[in-house]
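Appendix B, record 7
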Amino acid sequence: MKKFTLCLKISLLSAFCVFLCAFSNPETIAQSISSLQKTFTDHYDNSQESDEVKRYELNVTNNGFCRYKRYFNNGKTEYFAFKLSKFKDMDYYGTNTSGKLYIHTKGDDVIVQTYKDRGGDVDSMATQLVIPLKNMEAEDLNLIRDNLNKINAEVLISQKP
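Structure tokens (predicted):
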């Protein structure tokens, strides 16, 4: 009888855990991407860019890319892009009020393109992307890292056969 009671308790406990997990709301890739985009938009620092930069675009897309484009007053354009699944690590150099976020990739995974430059159009690859940010607290940096890691984990899970 004790064996039956123990098995019954284990079964009920397992069923209860499954019930609780069924109603949990794990964060999806789309939510992580949206949060990453909002953080970059809210904390981007125009003042660190030279006076020659007319405008910029910084987008995190739903298909898992980070794209950063700078337009200069002289017509030159710099374009940087990398697939979020290639994220390796990040560093932040600066203070709470102003600094630069270095996003490192696993290899030469950052596409770098320059248009209308004096030396001509240049296509190359890099291992990091540098984004000027302001008003960054440790929680904001942890949020960026967590979102990038969640996206990486989801991509790895979806790629397994």
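Remarks on this record: The first helix runs from residue 2 to 22. The chain is about 35% helix and 35% strand.
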